[in-house]
């Protein structure tokens, strides 16, 4: 098919390469495209989606992402709340596949940091005042 095996000798490696790089062919079906295909469609096979388009919530993800991509609202995607809610509800059913604790931990850490900062500041003022 598309692969070719070439054996190189020690002598082959002693001379500089004469290989030429060829520009990517956008029509090559084996060539990975980006997230958006040249025709404007979504490339569901893009590795950048991290497999979200497949799996138990793949259809909900595709529905929400498609809605957002094609949204013409003033606030892009504001017409897609129902699709994103369905995707989130599906993902909550599979916490092992779609972990969400990172988001919650970050919120907890930032709120604890905010709570700790004023206390530290007031404690420092008290120490200065008592000496």
Short description:
With 131 residues, this protein is mainly α.
Question: Key terms for this structure?
Answer:
mainly alpha; 46% helix; Helix Hairpins; 131 residues; 0% strand; 4 helices; elongated
| CATH class category label of one domain | Mainly Alpha
Question: Mean of the pLDDT scores?
Answer: 77
* Tally of separate helices: 4
Shape designation? elongated
**Judging by the overall fold, what is the CATH architecture of one domain?**
Orthogonal Bundle
Beta fraction: under 5%
Gyration radius, in Å: 27 Å
- Termini separation (Å)? 83 Å
Query: Based on DSSP secondary structure assignment, what is the total number of beta strands?
Result: 0
Low-pLDDT residue intervals, each spanning 5 or more residues? 119-128
User: Which fold does the CATH topology of one domain refer to?
Assistant: Helix Hairpins
Order of helices and strands: HHHH
- Mind describing the biggest β-sheet? none
* Fraction of residues in helix: 40-55%
Structural class: mainly alpha
Q: State the oligomer.
A: single chain
Organism: Eurystomus gularis
GO cellular component, one term: mitochondrial intermembrane space
Subcellular location: Mitochondrion intermembrane space
Keywords: Disulfide bond, Mitochondrion, Oxidoreductase, Protein transport, Redox-active center, Translocation, Transport
């Amino acid at each position: 098919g598309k692969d070719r095996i070439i054996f190189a000798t020690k002598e082959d490696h002693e001379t500089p390469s004469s290989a030429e790089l060829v520009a990517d062919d956008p029509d090559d079906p084996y060539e990975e495209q980006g997230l958006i295909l040249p025709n404007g469609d979504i490339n569901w096979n893009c590795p950048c989606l991290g497999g979200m388009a497949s799996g138990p919530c793949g259809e909900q993800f595709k529905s929400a992402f498609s809605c957002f991509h094609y949204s013409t609202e003033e606030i892009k995607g504001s017409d897609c709340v129902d699709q994103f809610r369905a995707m989130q509800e599906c993902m909550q059913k599979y916490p092992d596949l779609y972990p969400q604790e990172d988001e919650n931990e970050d919120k907890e850490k930032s709120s604890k940091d905010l709570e700790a900062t004023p206390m530290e500041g007031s404690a420092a003022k008290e120490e200065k005042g008592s000496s």
